[in-house]
Amino acid sequence: MRVPTLNLEPENELIPKIGVYVSRISLDGSPFMDAVTNIGVRPTFNESNLTIETFLLNAAPAAAGRARLQLLHRLRDEMKFPSPEALREQIVLDVTRAQRFFRILASPPAGGPPPAKREPRAQPREKPVG
How far apart (Å, rounded) are the C-alpha atoms in residues 75 and 82? Predict the structure, then answer.
């Protein structure tokens, strides 16, 4: 199975809960790029070392000296799949969910703020004469 990812090695950073995240990454000070990041031990391949792998949504991965990673939304727990093909199918779903997240994030609010509640106008009353 070939899913090109950037394999990150954190330097004394706090590691969040193992799982799959919608993320953004900046390589060597470049603008942030949309991504999906897996933090875990790759159980489908019977590995046990913690890895951080980031899949870029709109670019090919490139070697970088330094990376800044922002985790924006947790998609799911890491899980063991029965085969690499089943994992690939889940990655497609994860990427689709991440793309939807970024579309919603980029879209302007629908209709703007809610209209202000208007109080009914008081009708003028005529004073009785006399």
Answer: 20
Separation of alpha carbons 93 and 100, rounded Å: 11
What are the residues whose beta carbons fall under 8 Å from the beta carbon of 114, sequence distance 6 or more? none
What is the CA 80 to chain-centroid distance, rounded?
A: 21
Residues paired with residue 21 on neighbouring β-strands, in sequence order:
37, 74
CATH number, position 87: 2.40.30.30
Residue 118 inside a domain? The answer is no
Q: Rounded mean pLDDT of 91-116?
A: 85
Please, where are the H alpha helices in 1-130?
A: 84-106
Amino acid at residue number 38: N
Structural domain span for residue 92 = 6-106
Predicted structure pTM score: 0.78
